[in-house]
Amino acid sequence: MQPLSRRVLGSLAVVCLTTTGVSTVAFAGGRDHHPPDQDGKVIATGLNSPRHLTAAPNGDLYVAESGTGGDDCVVLGEEGPVVGEGGSLVPCGSWDPEEHPDWSEVRLGDTGSITKVSRKGGQDRIVTGLPSVDLGGGESTGPSDVSVRGNTLMVTVGLGAPPEMRDAMVQLFDDDTYEDLATVQEISFRGRHRVIIEEFADLAQFETDVNPHPDYLDTNPNAIVRDRHGWLVTDAGGNSVLRLNHGDLSTVGVPPGGMAEAPPFLGLPPGTMIPFEPVPTAAERGPDGAVYVSLLTGFPFPVGGSTIVRIDRHGTVSEWASGLTNVTDLTWANGKLYAVQLANNGLLSEDLTGSLVRVKKGSDTHKVIADDLFAPYGVAVSKGHAYVTTGAVVPGGGEVLRFRLH
What we know:
This protein is mostly beta strands. The protein has helices at 6-9, 163-173, 203-209, and strands at 41-47, 50-55, 61-65, 72-77, 80-81, 104-117, 123-136, 139-141, 143-149, 152-157, 183-190, 194-202, 221-227, 230-235, 240-245, 248-253, 258-261, 273-276, 280-285, 291-295, 306-311, 317-324, 327-333, 336-341, 353-359, 367-374, 379-382, 385-390, 398-404. This is ScyD/ScyE family protein.
């Protein structure tokens, strides 16, 4: 089992996270030879690891920020928190990474937030104090997506670990804030200043009880979108697409994984094929009534290995488009499907240059709408424009860019 949320942002321990010197690369499967729209206008800045975003009917945008972790720190090994010879936890900063390469330090806090970007200009963090986990090197988990319904927001809060890890963090730090990890939170606004935050659904408990993808227990709520009388939710740790209705969760479908050639650093014979997980990152109902799902794909994050799959009303999963790489979000607009590629050249390339593409049904070649984007993650379309979050791995350096769709 891979530790914490590496399925969502990839194995960032081997990915270059610097914001300079990022090269331009073409995504796998080829591209249309039409010049992409590079007139991306920055409409929001200073975001803490922004992930998915949504557009309200009036044009306002809401952005989920995973945050910067916090002051609570624990050393984690493969079996959980590391305990020293005296029975106490190993202090952060006291161990040798070369001696214990499988250990990592995780810092927790309440720095997750939701930012509103007004259609009239300007931005404001309207919700703060949500749980955030800093996994080091810019990789974090926390608020992952937001859906808007009137004066109410539905927010997914990630985890990327077995459900019992949440309970361990709550007990270890005696902080009820961490009980909100791996949940959907309902956030309502009463008047100008009163914000009410309540748990609406517990995906960690659902994973424990149902475990739709039965390899092992893991949960990482990622995307949420309004769908008919409820919501569609993707669990990037549980590898499942779920339906949320009146607080109740049910399984819509479980996308399949695949096989990819093992990277050389694993030391396996050349040509050895290893399995990868699907890692669903977003789901949305299409014009035909089916549910469409973007797949990041897990380690080794094969270039061109990401797909868009279609789930019909019977739960049958079929491939709809291929040739994509590390897809983190999708959205339908005017009968067209748009998707974000986090790393055009794959997460093992040490290059987090990504792109926004328009996906063609049944094809492995897709039209580039915007390229040369640093660590893009979420996309929303409103009034003829696409809005993309970038800098998904940079605390304080995230942005929202706007592109005109032609």
